[in-house]
């Protein structure tokens, strides 16, 4: 199956990312190389791009699409959580920009056997972004307790009927093996009152999102690594992050604010004594959103938000 993915906020993100066409840039979520292709077009012969992705299919597709730029591109089959270590291995101490396009790709959603989509009834409950990983969504659904399932459905899916769904999952697996997306869809359907099933999109959307986030540790990985990425930026370098739901966006916004204003002194102190200094500034007080034209062309872009942080210049 051809790797297809509609690149979101392409011009907006790359415009904000590139400050020096001779510089070194990192695409932490390479995917189908939509953003990376545009980055490469704007770099000089001195410029360099380093791309990360944990999905083997994305690595293959990106390698083919960026073949014409092979002299300036390095592609790594790795999660962006390993960025600092991998760059050190390459001898790269700092970069001019880092781009993250978070969430699940169009290709992953459309490849039904990957189990990301609730729209196919017979797909296996996989949902792994990195197929080298042993644990699958099925493992979570078959082993987590009712309380654990309720927690992740509430926390990562913001699901109102989390307890009902978790209880019914546990009840189902007492006599059956939960194997397919269709079986999970039916459990969710029975767990949500009829009057609520048609509000807020497909009734399975929130549960599938929650299980996927838990399995791939998406929010933890983001939270644990944004600070390191800011630390990797050269003076004036930028970190651009595209998010697709409120939980991701909240993490990015919070960390960017903390790096802009890290002072922990009480508000009534006349001067700062904690010694914490700003690492840079947020360039996006409000997130950059897709244009009307993009929304019309790509419905999956409707929840996208771009935030940008710029590392402070040397004093």
SSE topology:
Layout: H1 10-17, E1 24-27, H2 34-42, E2 48-53, H3 56-65, E3 73-77, H4 83-90, E4 95-101, H5 106-110, H6 137-143, H7 146-157, H8 162-173, H9 181-191, H10 205-216, H11 218-232, E5 233-243, H12 246-260, E6 280-282, H13 292-297, E7 305-311
Parallel strand pairs: 1-2, 1-4, 2-3, 4-5
Antiparallel strand pairs: 5-7, 6-7
Helix pairs in contact: 1-2, 7-8, 7-10, 8-9, 11-12
Find the CATH topology of the largest domain: Rossmann fold
**What is the CATH C level class of the largest domain, in words?**
Alpha Beta
Radius of gyration over all CA atoms, rounded: 21 Å
Number of strands: 7
Question: Could you please describe the fold and organization of this structure?
Answer:
By secondary structure, this protein is an alpha/beta fold. The chain folds into 2 domains: 192 residues, Rossmann fold; 97 residues, Putative methyltransferase TM0872, insert domain (DNA polymerase, domain 1), CATH 1.10.150.170. Strands 3-2-1-4-5-7-6 form a 7-stranded mixed sheet, with helices on both faces. α7 runs antiparallel to α8, α7 packs across α10 and α11 packs parallel to α12. The radius of gyration is 21 Å and the shape is globular.
Task: Write a concise keyword list for the protein shown above.
315 residues; alpha/beta; Rossmann fold; DNA polymerase, domain 1; 2 domains; 7 strands; 14% strand; globular
Kindly summarize this structure in a few lines.
By secondary structure, this protein is α/β, with parallel strands linked by helices.
